[in-house]
Amino acid sequence: MAANKDKYMPGFGNHFSTEAVPGSLPVGRNSPQRPEHGLYTEQLTGTSFTAPRSHNQRTWTYRIRPSVCHTPYQSMRADNIKSSPFDEVATPPNQLRWDQLPIPTRPTDFIDGLITLAGNGDTHSWSGLAIHLYAANASMNYRYFYSADGEFLFVPQQGQLTLRTELGIMDVKPGEIAVIPRGIKFAVNLPDGESRGYVCENYGHPFQLPDLGPIGANGLANPRDFLTPVAAFEDYDGPCEVVAKFSGQLWSSTYDHSPLCVVAWHGNYVPYKYDLALFNTINAVSYDHPDPSIFTVLTSPSHPAGTANIDFAIFPPRWMVAEDTFRPPWFHRNVMSEFMGLIHGVYDGKEGGGFAPGGASIHNCMSGHGPDASTTERAMAANLAPAKIEGSLAFMFESRYILRPTKFALAAKTLQKDYFQAWAGIKKLFR
């Protein structure tokens, strides 16, 4: 793998320009008749051609071979990776929670260790999402992947990921996230060996920073803290497998070269990463617990305006200072459906146990949920001095569409069939 000494470029949504070999980027035109160093020009477009300039996403690449050079893709079996319409089983209105996936005992790479827990929408109409979990212990050697169905948001919980992409390399550790846009090929290396985490596959509008509205110019995630990789390439001639997720199915092709052969590129359709510790939390300072939307890092908007195909929100260390207020999330029922994961620590709404790092829960449209019985009792009796939530990092994928669990998810040994007991100890206090 050849790369520049500088590993990342900062800024969300910028137009970037980078080359691993000096002189590879053309000057004055995007597609010269004969690119330097015997490269081929290829453009990646991530939005419709006539999208407004402010929303248009595309990247020009200069590569050793164009992407068209491969044998025909063949359908491959993938029992645990599912896609729309997510109608294998009826979706229950119950609160659902799972323990973390066990780490495999046999060699398992990211593709083989990926399972689909739930989803919604339609890959063909570019709406909705799929929520996957992964547990793996082997790197992808001469094996690559891309999804034509949606962009991948990685949330590692255990073990660092090294994401080798067409446009460069990103190291992503727990506490960081990474996004690989729709169609960009990548491989996952596991420098720490065993690894586990979450993936949100976004079928809809690409993730963007949320508008800040009355918050003003500052707060939440700052654009300059997002990092995108510089150009790197693999000049390898030999057999490789490329797995494509296309129209909800997995397909496999044999290449006679590495597909990560981009020597130079410029554009704004790029992978990126973000350190969640840099998030500037906005919180209540007078009374009441704010809606989870105030913790949004990235959003995939939908129509009508103000609704979200997906919101990615986090619950990081923060001060709690509201007076005469029940400080954990109050009991609630939402139109928005919530998937929650835990990266480390104890989530402040589930201090009674059962929600472990690497675990997951789903609270669907209009299904009641909130803090467990022991957390409720403590919160109602707590001394309301300023207090800091520390040592915990939870997150949420929130969607305007109902989250539909897969058959695998509802039959999994990790499904907590007694989750409803978390609220069984709530006492009648009415006088």
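(the above was protein one; protein two follows)
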Amino acid sequence: MMDMTAVAETPVAQGVGIGDGILNVNKPAGWTSHDVVAKMRGLLKGPKVGHAGTLDPAATGVLPILVGRGTRIAEYLLEWDKEYRAVLRLGQTTDTQDATGTVLATHSTDGLTDDGIRAAIAPFRGRIVQTPPMYSAVKVAGVPLYKSARAGKTVEREPRTVEIYELDVMDIAGPDVTLRVRCSKGTYVRTLCADIGGALGVGGHLLSLQRTRVGPLTVERSLTPDEIGVRAQTGRLTDDLLPLDAALDMMPVVLVDERTAGRVRHGAAIPAGVGRWASDHRGTPAVVRVKDAAGCLLAVGKVSAEPAESDTVPGVAIEKVLVDVDAVTK
């Protein structure tokens, strides 16, 4: 599972008026994430389209599709946690750490017990260190690792720390262990499976993977590309779009008056002490949503250092304007 964010922003001919936000797409097996983007471009015929949180072709499940100004907020969605249903096959090691690769070694799993498997999995909860797999998009010296792997080269990779918030054993059926994994960004579930197999001494790889949740988007409420096509034709797709404001709900809100709002629409910074917090919060956040007095989302901004007085709102540098320059509050 490659975990990165990619955005394609090539506009196409005018067509379906859907608005700005995020579509919860259920990616079919065999499709690349770019395949889904291309399909959405063809169906929506107008807005910019991108995706956040790449899924490997063999994986299925939630793929956030960014529509219109949704492509502007991809970087802020990186902190969304992710949840997966993964099937680990013990006893086989592959060169890709998943079922698409070549089997490198096979070991008997006859000596394993359910209790032993659960005990070996327990240490993988919490903060762990992973080495990115060779078949991944991580770049070393500017070259993606998968290109080096296809050339038969093994490249030294820097280990990285990720967090496994939850790791539950859902089922054990012979050599196949079904896991529920809730993890931080940057986690390779296939590497997790390979490492668990290594800890058990028999090897292992990721047999199948479904992403069941990304942030607030769940697979139960996702739509297949075909379902999106039907809804787009009947004009019902807008109801399925997660608005930008809801997608950025993890950010505190700074409210500004209409004069300042007009400046924000042009990308001008908000001086310290001009805005006010919409609700109580702790500390000084790194980024905030900026809204006008009526609650209309205007922009995302980066907060300056903590002000001298705790009740004073710090200055905010505007990073992404999310409304038209001439937009007015209705």
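Reviewer note on protein two: The chain has three domains: 5-80+216-245, 82-214, 251-321.
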